[in-house]
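lol ok so funny story. i was supposed to be doing the assay writeup but got distracted and ended up predicting the structure for this chain instead. priorities right. anyway since i did it might as well share w the group, maybe its usefull for someone
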Amino acid sequence: MTSAQVGDSGLVLRVPEVDPVIGHWRARYDSVASLGVPAHVTVLYPWIPAGLLTDDDLAAITAIAAATDPIELTFAAFGRFPELLWLDPQPGTAILALIAAVTDRWPDYPPYGGRYGSRPVPHLTVADSANPTELEALVADVERLLPVPARIAELSLVVRRADGWDLGRTFPFRASARPGSAQRDVADVAAPADLDRG
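and the output, tada:
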């Protein structure tokens, strides 16, 4: 999300349960934390630009979420990619099933633009750049506080604005859907006046 353009969007699973454990580390080492991106596991990024989202798109993602059971996860270990330190959400099967459902519906939007293949590794980024010595301190501090359990009850749309990322809308999962629950209107997400492309 670091090279995102204004109007870009993504679908994420927010994980507030990890904030007491990694929040201060993310603020220091995760470049998107200061832009308003919460601790999360990415389901699909990039997704349809906010200004191009249609009612059909929103109805489809609402239906996918409503057909998904809440996801129980445990974050008990770190994983590493080159220049990326992350927490491993387990079990990952429900996340992968959700990713598959979304990418089957929108095949023109593969995860991460297709850079890492069709089967991404679910992860929650803690640091995207740091020297090895600093990462050792981070790992030592966080490992003593693991595992962290989490229950994910909704899918969230995030949208890149000129000054950072905003939560655009949430899509409740099956057991958490409540009749009449308030959601932000898509006009709040896709209003051209909010998406200054200059």
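The chain has five helices and eight strands. Residues 50 and 144 are 40 Å apart (CA to CA).
back to the writeup now i swear
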